[in-house]
Fold:
Amino acid sequence: MREVAALAGVSIKTVSRVVRGEAGVSPELTTRVTEAAAMLDYRHNLAASTLRGHGQKTAAIGLVLMDVANPFAAALHRAVEDFAHGRGTLVFAVSSDEDPDRQREVLEALLSRRVDGLIVMPVGADHSILLREHTRGTPVVFVDRAPESAEFDSVTADNREGAIRAVEHLAAQGHSRIAYLGDLHTIQTAAHRYAGYVEGLARSGITLDPNLIHTDLHSPEAATAAAEALLTRPDRPTAVFSAQNLITTALLRTIGKYDPKHAIAIIGFDDLPLADLITPPLTTIAQDPTRIGRTAAELLFTRLDGDTSPPRHRVIPTRLIPRGSGEIPGSTTTSVKTPADRPAASQHHRR
Amino acid sequence: MREVAALAGVSIKTVSRVVRGEAGVSPELTTRVTEAAAMLDYRHNLAASTLRGHGQKTAAIGLVLMDVANPFAAALHRAVEDFAHGRGTLVFAVSSDEDPDRQREVLEALLSRRVDGLIVMPVGADHSILLREHTRGTPVVFVDRAPESAEFDSVTADNREGAIRAVEHLAAQGHSRIAYLGDLHTIQTAAHRYAGYVEGLARSGITLDPNLIHTDLHSPEAATAAAEALLTRPDRPTAVFSAQNLITTALLRTIGKYDPKHAIAIIGFDDLPLADLITPPLTTIAQDPTRIGRTAAELLFTRLDGDTSPPRHRVIPTRLIPRGSGEIPGSTTTSVKTPADRPAASQHHRR
DNA sequence: CTGTTAGCGCATTCAA
DNA sequence: TTGAATGCGCTAACAG
Structure:
């Protein structure tokens, strides 16, 4: 900057003004400075600028996801990026892998780079780092999962409601043996979806059968094993509610072997890219990651703009997308299969 | 930091040493400093540290993708993140949307934050910013697409070879009317895949038919329109090579209407998440985004470690994954369909 | 093993 | 409208 000033024959401060686009520099000097900067390959150093100026803002935010490559997370990331881009802000997206230790690492890395704010898909129950940082003045928004302590802003999908709808939808098709496959119970969304499953059964007047419930499925292998266990039972379920993306995929890969006629109804939580192209087309409870991300970014930037009102908790509705797999009918009664049910069923699962 | 030093009763430099984990501080002072830091909620400011210290490294790199939400890009991102994480480096991932103007914007944003290096999926032909930055000393690695000027390191998939393999595979199943659907010709990968298509036809002794070729399909709508045009031709193709992900998806969504019996063979470039679950299972030329990303990160960090050898160009092989759709046989001759071909065909497209 | 001094690149006083 | 001084938070080089 000194060199540019020298070459342009002005003071350092004038260069600073031009570079930052401040008003109050004569056009002539402006062009002289611009040219000198170009000539010297000068580039403004935002880090140094931040050190001294404008409220210490780094114009960068941190986004902690379970995995930047997860489709849900990636869509959310994109929405946050777009909003931030409009505000001249860059986003550091990092993966926690649902591992509290790794989350701590990445949070420290983010914080030591003095990000202006944080959007976090929290893992684990220990949010001490975030709490400390929050009281220190860094805005924090939770996404996908709400904190136990409602001190942070949050944006979540309506997991419970979505799960209820899924179960009621299956019950409405005549199913009463509805199985549940879900992720780690420690993950809040999983817990909520399970609660919704239970509630959905209750509302439909169906008695919960523990034999049809598999939780804590956190790997494709575990999901596959659970699906196999379920499908090989003598009294196997007529419908399955799969409460997570990867579990649904594992289920779909497994079910062909045990249910070649597609007699078992399936609803998956969270939409899948090619859900409409598989056989039968997959009925899903779709979340809206783009809207969740945008909403989270909105909340964060509102805080960055100085809003200090009480924490807000936004809940984004889910959407049931009936495509076929969730509309395969079951027998209306639990124990007896009337012949009348057969034709209807076959109509649905025929290609 | 000064406050921490005061509270711990040491000099500011000692605090610096402790915070940075430098050797040569007595255990006693270390704990005193650590406690004081905790008490004051002190956090190290990496930006300021960078300003003064260790070769001006910010421990952040920039990753310019076409879209952080694109599955290929997201997988690549994750690989880069993992490698960078092991080196204490954070990554700014941004989306260019294949738009040169937006790319310029995000590059400026990245560069003004003084990232240590750049991994870029380049768009457009004007790489002046990158060239300037490169000569200024910032390592730049191109991914997915190689620069015309071979001055930068690059990591690309073997697009041409993959396309050749796809076409030869289709030809080997007896197809000779093999259509091509491809993205914008200005995108290097698209051009290479097209070149591979042409070469594949040549090697198989098939005369190229311009009527079966649709390029510059850069939106789902364009892809759908092209697919419809192709499928409603009187002399429609018996096989289609779809050279891009989104185009393949559009094709699959369209083809059901015109080819309910699955008589047309399809190979798609780039693997799809549920490719194995659709009907018929989709044969693809799979890239390895994880390996591409890791390799790019390796090259970048090698440069950051001071390697100044000539530019390297790594080409990552693709893999043909036969799943069914690419193995649907065609008639061995172009004009005559012998009855003998029929049964074989039906075997394949039956569910 | 510890402390002192100087200055990274820039923006903010305040003065001209 | 422009410029000179001062310091942001930190670390390198050099003492002690």
Observations:
- The first helix of chain A runs from residue 2 to 8.
- Confidence is low (pLDDT under 50) at residues 333-351 of chain A.
- The CA atoms of residues 3 and 81 of chain A lie 35 Å apart.
